[in-house]
Design goal:
The protein is α+β, with helices and mostly antiparallel strands. The strands form eight sheets. Strands 1, 2, 3, 4, 5, 6, 7, 8 and 9 form a nine-stranded mixed sheet that branches. An eight-stranded mixed sheet has the order 21-20-19-18-24-23-22-27. A hairpin with a 5-residue loop joins β22 (253-260) and β23 (266-279). The termini are far apart.
Length: 562
């Protein structure tokens, strides 16, 4: 600590709850703290302070400035000798307090101003700013789960508290010196539910924050699954579900998508978030809602015409909105959040819709090739910007033939060394996807073989015969150089060949290189006909007969000479 002309400077002081160190200056007008790393400044004027508390922590000491209105600001890292300097530096009531250190895992929870405090024997165990609470739920009987906002500016390596679960016991009464459940009180009052509702009210999460601008009921959400009531306010919106409630600030929304499903009966509306919402251990960076295409709604906007023109001059809002639900919802979100709604571009699949059906691992879904990105729904939701794509690859296209492979895979490799594999895509979607990727100038690493492989497979069929075909004596004719490949009349592969539809402009002629023909001839010499085999046998028999006759004549001649 250093002191100059009534200003006291304390080094290596932390703003409570942060790991960032800084310097704290104390003067007659109040306190001012500045971070060493970020340069962030936190100042508290003396006229805002009601009192000051000095508390010993495990390693050092803490100063808590209790402000008017119930809030407080805390600084950690003081030495014991600094207490006297702070007490004399600001003419405010100064108290020394002690933390509760007995190690109990229970206590009394109280709302003191803007803080949720836990006390044991009337001494502080811990306290949580109510503004840090993002959600509260009742996952089980007598349990309350509290979730907290995450600080986007924190170091990713720092540990942070994300959720706390509390057990709220039922009402009890004394019987012969023992505490037993009071059944009548328990039926009249569910203490866990009451505590949960009080948390929602204090944290401004539930339906206690005043009148909303627009409200939607029975909104079907696919990810995370459930039905929610949605209340939209000037700067945030709230989702009220059976088990979970969420409060989402509009500044946390970065993307909005409106994607029609290929079944022509549903439309998906996706909300992209900078900070994901949490259910237990699962994070959801995208919220996927799905609306029936024919569902009509009629809602009233709780604003006058003048207020609408003044606050939302773009014309997205009207005093009364009616039409298809997906249309009304997208217009309201666009007007209130100021985020553009992205719709499909010029990609059309083989059936004329905007998506390709495929799978990611064991999950079936739809892949939307948009103008600047890939988007896969429903679960898991995958968003890939084209600028992040390193290359794509068509897999299982050149292996086998159209007779055996009725689908192929699309592998998208990203610059971040992440690979996404979309499997079981119908073979009819190959050409639309191939043309689309080429038009977007996305690198296709096996483009050379993909430009011809579909025709080759169509014409050649299966590369190897099955054992059943061989046993029936079926065979394929050798391909003739410069002529189209044909199948024998007695082969039944024509049905599969008709099912395959090649792309326009592809040639049906397949020519083989001379080297390939020579190799085939060497590996598979031509078989001799039956007539040739009989002729050779006759010649051999005649030769053997002649050799025997010559031997007999030689023997006779030798005897006569004797």
């Amino acid at each position: 600590m250093t002191s100059t002309e009534g200003i006291h400077t304390f080094g290596n002081i932390r703003l409570s709850g942060k790991e960032d160190l800084g310097a704290l200056k104390l003067h007659a007008d109040g306190f001012a703290w500045k971070s060493k790393n970020t340069g962030k400044v936190v100042s508290v004027q003396a006229d805002q302070i009601e009192s000051i508390e000095w508390t010993r922590l495990s390693r050092d000491h803490q100063v808590k400035l209790l402000l008017k209105g119930g809030s407080n600001v805390k600084f950690d890292g003081f030495r014991e000798t600094d207490a006297e300097v702070i007490e004399k530096g600001v003419s405010k009531p100064f108290h020394k307090t002690q933390m509760f250190t007995k190690g109990w895992n229970w206590g009394d929870f109280l709302f003191e101003g803007s803080m949720l405090t836990c006390r044991g024997d009337k001494r502080l165990v811990f306290e949580i700013p109510v503004s840090d609470i993002s959600n509260s739920s009742v996952p089980a009987k007598n349990e309350v789960a509290i979730e907290f906002h995450q600080d986007d500016t924190r170091n990713p390596q720092d540990e942070t508290l994300t959720e706390m679960r509390l057990y709220v016991p039922p009402a009890v009464k004394e019987t012969d010196g023992e505490a037993v459940p009071d059944v009548e009180d328990e039926e009249e009052m569910d203490y866990a539910q009451s505590f949960h509702e009080l948390l929602l009210a204090k944290a401004d999460i539930g339906s206690f924050a005043g009148e909303s601008i627009v409200s939607f009921t029975e909104m079907p959400m696919v990810t995370p699954r459930g039905r929610y009531e949605v209340d939209m306010y000037a700067t945030f919106m709230k989702f009220h579900g059976k088990s979970h409630d969420y409060k989402i600030m509009y500044k946390n929304i970065n993307k909005l998508f409106l994607l029609p499903k290929p079944d022509q009966r549903h439309v998906a509306f996706i909300i992209g978030l900078d900070t994901p919402v949490r259910q237990g251990q699962t994070l959801y960076p995208f919220l996927v809602l799905q609306f029936p295409k024919e569902r009509e709604v009629e809602i009233d906007v709780q604003l006058t015409e003048d207020e609408i023109k003044q606050r939302y001059p773009d014309g997205g809002l009207q005093p009364k909105l009616e039409g298809p639900l997906y249309h009304v919802v997208s217009n309201v979100f666009k007007a209130l959040t100021g985020v553009k709604v992205i719709i499909p571009g010029n990609f059309k699949n083989a059936s004329g819709t905007h998506a390709v059906r495929c799978s990611v691992k064991a999950s079936d879904g739809h892949l939307y090739p948009l103008n600047k990105s890939f988007f896969f729904i429903n679960k898991p939701v995958i968003y890939i910007r084209f600028e992040d794509v390193l290359s794509v690859e068509f897999a299982r296209v050149s292996e086998g033939s159209s007779n055996t492979n009725r689908s192929f895979d699309l592998i998208v490799s990203c610059k971040s060394d992440v690979e996404h594999q979309f499997t079981s895509i119908d073979k009819n979607e190959y050409q639309p996807l191939f043309d689309f990727l080429q038009s977007k100038k996305i690198k296709i690493i096996n483009i050379a073989q993909n430009t011809t492989v579909m025709d080759v497979d169509k014409l050649l069929g299966s590369e190897s015969e099955s054992e059943d075909e061989k046993s029936r004596g079926k065979r394929k004719r050798e391909p003739v150089k410069g002529q189209p490949v044909q199948l024998d009349d007695d082969e039944d592969d024509s049905e599969n060949d008709e099912d395959y539809k090649g792309s326009e402009g592809e040639s049906s002629d397949v020519s083989l290189d001379e080297e390939d023909e020579d190799e085939d001839d060497e590996e598979k010499p031509a078989k001799k006909s039956k007539k040739e085999d009989k002729g050779e046998k006759k010649k051999k028999a005649k030769k053997d007969k002649k050799d025997k006759k010559d031997k007999k004549e030689k023997k006779k001649k030798s005897k006569s000479d004797d």
